[in-house]
Structures are given as C-alpha cells and as structure tokens.
Amino acid sequence: MTSIIEEIEALKRENDAVLLAHYYVEDEVQAIADYVGDSYYLAKVAVGLKERTIVFAGVSFMGESAKILNPDKTVLMPDPNADCPMAHMAEIEKIKAVREEYEDVAVVCYINSTAELKMHSDVCVTSANAMKIVQALPNRNIFFIPDENLGRYIASKVPDKHFIFNEGFCHVHKSVTAENIMRIKALYPQAEVLMHPECTPEALETADYIGSTSGIIEYATKSEKNEFIVATEVGVLYKLKCQNPDKSFYGLGPKMFCPNMKKITLEKIRDCLKNHTGVVEVDDAKREKSLIPLKRMLDLAK
Ligand code: 13P
Ligand code: SF4
Description:
Number of strands: 12
Order of helices and strands: HEHEHEHEHEHEHEHEHHEHEHEHEHH
Radius of gyration: 19 Å
Helix content: 40-55%
Distance between the termini: 47 Å
Shape: globular
Bound molecules: 1,3-dihydroxyacetonephosphate, iron/sulfur cluster
Number of helices: 15
C-alpha cells in the first residue's frame, strides 16, 4: 500500500511543487518539508524557487507573502482557515491618524499581518531582522504594528528612536508569565531560558536569550549548556531535539500550542495537491502595494 508520504512525493512531482514549512507546524510535516524555517528564512527562500507550485505549511500571511513575492507561481495553503489572529490586529484608520500626527513616521509592519496592513506600511520586518531594519531606517518616529510586545522589545534595543505602539498580540506567547518560568527554573536550575520576543516585557526579563525561532535553535545548538527552558510554540522542540539529541529541552506545556499552525496535516497537504484547492489569490492592486514593504525588508535585512 502506498503511504501518504509517497502519495505527497508523487503529487509534488506531478505538480512541480515544493513544500515550505514553519517550525510551528506538526513534526511529521516538518520532517517531509523541502525547506523548514522561521518567517524570514521562508520569505527569502520563497523568492527564486525553480518549482511552479509552492505549498505553504503555515498560516495565511505566509502563503499570502509567498504569492505577493511570486505572482506567476501557484501558491497552495493546505488549510486556508489556518490564520494568525494577530495578523488582523491593527487598523488602517489608526495608521492614517499616526501618519497625520507624525510627519516623518515609518510604519513598520511585522510580517505576521494581512496584505491589507502591509499595503499601508513602509517596511516589513520579522523577529529575526526587526532590530537591524529599524536601526537602518532614517525615520526617528516608528509606528510598530501589529505586535506590541515585539515592538516594545525592539524599542528597548533602539533607544534613540521614538516608538508608537499598537495593541496587537500573539495569544500563545502572551500566555507566558515570569512565574511560569520561575517555577520551571526551580525544577531545572541549570537550564537557560530561551524566549521569543512576542512574549511580554515582564516575561522577557527572565530570559537568558531572546530571539526568533531560528535564533533560539541556533543559540541552543551552539551553546555549551545542556539544559534549556523553551518559551515559544512547542513545534520548535522538534528541530531542537533533532539537532541536539544529547541536550534536554523543557517546554511550558499545552498552552504553547498554536491551534492555527497545527491545522496543517499530511492529509491536507496531499489533498490540496490532488484537488488544487487552497489556491492563494491576491489582486493586482493589493499585490503591487504590499510588495513594496516586503521587498524593502529583503533588501534592508541583507
Ligand atoms: P518567527 O519564526 O519569525 O520567529 O515567528 C514566530 C511566529 O509567531 C510565526 O507565526
Ligand atoms: Fe500567530 Fe502566535 Fe500562532 Fe505565530 S504562534 S501564528 S503569532 S498565533
């Protein structure tokens, strides 16, 4: 009997398709993906792929960004309902009001955002490149959307700029508290705390290392330490354990589970390739305008 993995491989060949996956999707999806990474890596990889079809194992804004960057390719989302709630947590009216108030403002848009929000922004960032990009901007005033926590973290690292914040958040990372960390630290006092900057400023104070998903993996892999408390979505544990079989990683339990990332299954990957469903469409006007901040990110982050 043909296994589902063999079916997917055959369908990929038939459709001239490549599979991209974020570190937060299920282990078995990461295991068969052609490219696995953080949001910045996946946006970079999406540019210049030779295959005609991109299957994106991730949430909507990722597939949408891949389509914006590759208008001539077919981009398939295995589950079009896998959406990041934070991607919608900013208002166009608020952007317009801030632009009125601050003449020189740069609207800096976390890639976890809809194309609609990107259209009204000056530059996109991810957690891996936000600091470098904000530092490189000539503007003193920065309106950071949609994530308040990432915005506040970057602001703490770039004190010469004035930040205006927006009240967006990731419900997974916002659930991490300093008390959580201290309780686990009491059990594993030697462990280093690795944390994603979508966590609150209070939680970030307990961290030994703060970075994007790929930053966390790289830090733990290079570290001489053997034990780590991992304060980000549980999916990251898969790569951490594969790359570091002799080290110990402690997660924060079921609350660090992104229900949208976990909607992506092998069955849905097979079915979207078989039935040509989940096709990402972005109309030309929206695509042209949202391409500008995405391209600027790729240029400034080099
Ligand atoms: P990174 O992979 O860029 O660290 O992003 C985390 C995230 O929340 C993606 O949805
Ligand atoms: Fe959105 Fe948070 Fe899930 Fe990432 S982990 S997709 S930011 S809800």
